[in-house]
Design goal:
By secondary structure, this protein is mainly α. It has one domain. The protein contains nine helices and no strands. The radius of gyration is 17 Å and the shape is globular. The two termini are 19 Å apart. The model has no long low-confidence stretch (mean pLDDT 93). The chain crosses the membrane at residues 16-36, 48-74, 86-110, 146-162, 182-202.
Length: 208
């Protein structure tokens, strides 16, 4: 009974809970950009400026989800704003699932290759798992459809292309740098899987 309440529309779209979720994600986004600070500085110093957009993957995914919640909190009537909101929501779902699962997988992969465990790793595992879970939960409250999902999928695949063409992918555990090609293949496969997961979640939401 209690579980069904926490899964209910009444609870998940309660404005107090939505604002709590908004600020948790907003703070996580800020922390994520700080986490990427050194890599962003390195990119600006050694790579063309335009590539900086593709560096902070997880915090940008978190930013998309944070912004997506605003369209739930404040439904709009403008067709243009609705379309913008739908694209942001689709990006939120695809990228949150993708980078949430990616970060957790990379941490465990690093450990499996003999990498050291740090307390920050467990924090990242918890926060990135939450990213993927919340995105799939909130699909049913988002308004995007197929076209927006295609746009989100193409953007995420473009991000993968930029990351592994120009070597601006997220810095990896030291033990994984000898397996960058395998990481790249896993990353692209995960992007496709995340697009499919978003599509299936969207399909299920339309039936509900």
């Amino acid at each position: 009974m209690a579980l069904s309440f926490f899964w209910s529309r009444e609870f998940l779209t309660n404005r107090y809970f939505l604002w709590l979720l908004f600020w948790c994600n907003a703070l996580g986004t800020v922390y994520g950009y700080i986490w990427y600070g050194e890599q962003m500085k390195w990119t600006l110093a050694h790579q063309p400026v335009w590539q900086i957009v593709f560096v902070p993957d997880s915090p940008t995914a978190s930013l998309f989800f944070t912004l997506a919640l605003l369209w739930v909190l404040y439904p709009v009537k403008s067709a243009v704003l609705q379309r913008i909101g739908h694209i942001i929501q689709a990006l939120a779902v695809v990228t949150s699932v993708k980078y949430g699962v990616w970060a957790v997988s990379i941490i465990f992969a690093g450990w499996s290759q003999g990498g050291a465990q740090h307390w920050q790793d467990w924090m990242l595992i918890a926060s990135h798992s939450a990213m993927a879970i919340e995105a799939l939960i909130y699909v049913r409250f988002f308004g995007f459809r197929w076209l927006s999902l295609i746009v989100a999928g193409l953007w995420t695949l473009l991000n993968d292309t930029m990351d592994y063409t120009y070597d601006i992918y997220p810095w990896l555990p030291a033990t994984l740098y000898q397996h960058v090609q395998a990481v790249r293949n896993f990353t692209v496969t995960l992007t496709i899987a995340s697009i499919v997961a978003a599509w299936l979640a969207l399909k299920q939401a339309k039936r509900a």
